[in-house]
Amino acid sequence: MDNSFASLPPAFYTRLMPTPLPAPYLVAVSAPAAELVGLTPQQLADSLDVLIGNVAPDRALPLAAVYSGHQFGVWAGQLGDGRAMLFGDVATTQGPMELQWKGAGLTPYSRMGDGRAVLRSSIREFLCSEAMHALGVPTSRALSVAGSDQGVMRETVETSAVVVRMAQSFVRFGSFEHWFYRNKNDELKILADYVIERFYPELLGADNPYQALLAEVTRRTAHMIAHWQAVGFMHGVMNTDNMSILGLTLDYGPFGFMEAFDAQHICNHTDQQGRYSYANQPQVGHWNCYALGQALLPLIGEVEATEAALAVYQPEFAARMDELLHAKLGLSLLDQHLDADRALFDAMFALMQANSVDFTLFFRRLSGMRAADAGGDEPLRDLFLDRPAFDAWAEQYRARLRAENSDDATRRLAMNQTNPKYVLRNYLAQVAIEKAQNKDFTEVARLLTVLQRPYDEQPEHEHYAALPPDWASHLEVSCSS
């Protein structure tokens, strides 16, 4: 174990040990994540005190990093790892991977918090991190979740838990904003040089490496958010302190997957103004990149160069979104059809909106349509109240399929590797959480197994792909989640 972030000057973090939790118990481990760092699930189970932060691994250098950020569009000042501690990085086949405890106790950056995470939110982060990875979305990973009966107060008293999460880096946009707004250009340069040398060495030879860094982070962010939109994922708290400098989905809190389609859907009950709605995510991502560009301006040196780096966002997002939507509909990305295809997509989303159609089921069932005739339409058609409107759109879609001589079997196979059958619906997470709160962790493990193969049919788990029950519409998640 190493800790490259600890090689930065002491101003970047506070060294400290986690606060122990009594009588820990293991909730779940991710075998694929464990394999990535060369461990087995049994080795993790045998290291429970390490997983919950009661014991630090050999050669670990636990620390809490300082950063700042904009929260809901407002400058919030100093923030930092209020309940997370980085304890080191390990070599993997994908390069060094940093490991963090989340929920390990008070740090100097906890502000009014208690430094703890609750079992409810920890299970949600654990499951969604691994689910998003299986969906092919850039994300941090989750190695394990462990619990303790020690109580913490949220809306009610809940029990504590710790997630061990992993990423190549947990440096955020807000890490750079912290130094910019303090006029600490030396520290700003130290951090930028560290990030470039460790994670973007190909940029070292650029005419302006800091401009190149901003352009690459902007490009990755645009691609990540296009992936979010394509799977119907809503982050819920796209503050600049939650934005990864590597373009990873980071800090799972009040997230949600789109069910009944509503472009203005707000998954975070705390977000009363709807800043982070599904429809707003792309433009908020752009706004956040501008906040990073502002922070890097002293290093880039020129406003024009900064704006040029940021200008990659819109075309990169649009191009990636085009690719993903064409794949979701089983269409080839052909220039001669591009304008008509975008009109087809717009009409599709308008139809889904008007009929409150389930996002995941719509795209999964779409693969069953045939190019020649309406055979195979019924499972999809059943999702719509306005059947004639669906029929009209379906005929346009079939005509487009015929225009490229689409083969039904080949297309269906490709679409089912692009459109997941299983996503982490809020009610599925809630069922697993309620059982886990009674010390029954079988549903967490079962749900994790299903979500690690989201594109497979898994007939034995068919009920995980069903429309949500009526009671699920009353579920709310907030920043405390």
Explain what the structure shows:
- This protein is α+β, with helices and mostly antiparallel strands.
- It folds into 3 domains: 169 residues, no CATH class; 150 residues, no CATH class; 85 residues, no CATH class.
- The chain is built from 17 helices and 12 strands.
- Strands 2, 6, 7, 8, 9 and 10 form a 6-stranded antiparallel β-sheet that branches.
- The two termini are 31 Å apart.
- The model has no long low-confidence stretch (mean pLDDT 96).
- This is Protein nucleotidyltransferase YdiU.
- Pfam families: SelO (PF02696).
- Belongs to the SELO family.
SSE layout and pairing:
Layout lengths: L12 E3 L9 E5 L1 H6 L4 H5 L2 H4 L11 E3 L2 E4 L2 E5 L5 E7 L6 E6 L14 E2 H17 L5 E13 L3 E11 L5 H8 L4 H15 L9 H23 L1 E2 L21 E2 L23 H20 L2 H8 L2 H16 L9 H18 L3 H8 L11 H4 L5 H17 L4 H8 L10 H11 L5 H10 L30
Antiparallel strand pairs: 1-3, 2-9, 4-5, 6-7, 7-10, 8-10, 9-10, 11-12
Enzyme class: transferase
InterPro entries: SelO
Keywords: ATP-binding, Magnesium, Manganese, Metal-binding, Nucleotide-binding, Nucleotidyltransferase, Transferase
Give structural attributes:
481 residues, alpha+beta, 3 domains, two-stranded antiparallel ribbon, 17 helices, 41% helix
- Determine the structural class based on helices, strands and strand pairing: alpha+beta
Extended strand count: 12
What is the general shape? Answer: globular
Average of the residue pLDDT scores: 96
Report helical residue fraction: 40-55%
The separation of the N and C termini measures: 31 Å
Total tally of structural domains: 3
How large, in whole angstroms, is the Cα Rg?
Answer: 23 Å
Order of helices and strands: EEHHHEEEEEEHEEHHHEEHHHHHHHHHH
| Tally of helical segments | 17
- Determine the strand fraction and express it as a percent band: 5-15%
What oligomeric state do these chains adopt? single chain
Give unreliable regions as ranges.
Answer: none
* Biggest sheet character: 6 strands, antiparallel
Organism: Duganella aceris
Protein name: Protein nucleotidyltransferase YdiU
Binding site for Mg(2+): 242, 251
Function: Nucleotidyltransferase involved in the post-translational modification of proteins. It can catalyze the addition of adenosine monophosphate (AMP) or uridine monophosphate (UMP) to a protein, resulting in modifications known as AMPylation and UMPylation.
